[in-house]
């Protein structure tokens, strides 16, 4: 698939570029460039699929033990889409975009607390969307925004929690773990991993919940499926 280059040229009135013309995006007329828009959309879809192939590799995905590892495939897919966007813009607009992205990456890395990797991916994505607007490529920005909105809706359709059972004695730990596992499955949760620590008296579950159930409501549902003597102290953490 080849990207059609439809750049305009703008003279350098201030002589900053030593007389070298600066490229200009085609602006709103870019929406009339059907071949490019189709090619760009296919590039985003392909990047998503290929990122998913790596992110959901069965030998890696089945070893997940934490919220971070569970969400890693989503992050890889998001970064794959960002990479496709950068690649299209570099081919379409010129290598100057690469230097701009490099500068933005340095700013985010050293001057901004972007939080988890998944959040960093979203920040870079919206930065690239803003850059597309500034470069006069509104069609790239809008297509990316719409596609990313749908992609995030699909990727975030389920919530991930870490549930820790605390203060368990060694003789009751396995029994409580079994009771909570059965309770979680009964209320529709998927148990992604379970780790028992007899030394600390803890059991850690990583679970996935669809339909965005509120944590308090989820905990209440879980308690109703447990006997009174099976309930113990818990900590909840969401991804």
Structure keywords:
alpha+beta; 2 domains; Alpha-Beta Plaits; 239 residues; disordered N terminus; 15% strand; four-stranded antiparallel β-sheet
Walk me through this protein's architecture.
By secondary structure, this protein is of the alpha+beta class. It has two domains: 148 residues, no CATH class; 81 residues, Alpha-Beta Plaits, CATH 3.30.70. 24% of the residues are buried. The N terminus is likely disordered. The longest helix is centred in the middle third of the chain and has 27 residues.
H/E element sequence = EEHHHHHHEHEEHE
Structural class: alpha+beta
Largest sheet properties = 4 strands, antiparallel
Overall average pLDDT? 79
Q: Kindly report how far apart the N and C termini lie.
A: 38 Å
What's the arrangement of strands in the largest beta sheet?
4-5-3-6
Q: Catalogue the unreliable spans.
A: 1-23
Overall spatial form: elongated
Q: How much helical structure, as a percent, in the residues?
A: 55-70%
What is the number of strand segments?
Answer: 6
Count of alpha/pi helices:
8
Radius of gyration: 24 Å
Taken together, the total number of domains comes to 2
Strand content: 15-25%
């Amino acid at each position: 698939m080849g990207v059609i280059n439809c750049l305009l040229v703008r003279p350098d009135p201030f002589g900053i570029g030593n007389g070298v013309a600066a490229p200009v995006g085609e602006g709103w007329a870019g929406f009339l460039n059907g071949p490019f828009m189709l090619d760009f959309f296919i590039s985003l879809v392909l990047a998503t699929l290929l990122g998913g192939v790596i992110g959901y590799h069965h030998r890696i995905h089945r070893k997940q033990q934490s919220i971070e590892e569970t969400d890693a495939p989503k992050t890889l897919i998001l970064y794959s889409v960002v990479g496709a966007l950068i690649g299209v813009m570099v081919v379409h607009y010129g290598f100057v975009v690469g230097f701009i992205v490099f500068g933005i990456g340095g700013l985010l890395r050293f001057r901004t607390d972007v939080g988890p990797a998944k959040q960093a991916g979203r920040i870079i994505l919206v930065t690239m969307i803003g850059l597309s607007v500034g470069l006069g490529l509104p069609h790239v920005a809008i297509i990316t925004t719409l596609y990313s909105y749908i992609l995030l809706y699909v990727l975030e359709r389920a919530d991930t929690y870490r549930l820790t059972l605390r203060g368990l004695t060694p003789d009751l730990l396995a029994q409580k773990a079994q009771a909570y596992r059965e309770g979680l499955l009964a209320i529709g949760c998927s148990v992604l991993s379970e780790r028992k620590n007899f030394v600390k008296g803890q059991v850690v579950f990583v679970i996935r919940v669809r339909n965005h159930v509120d944590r308090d409501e989820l905990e209440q549902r879980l308690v109703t499926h447990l006997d009174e003597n099976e309930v113990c102290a818990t900590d909840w953490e969401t991804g």
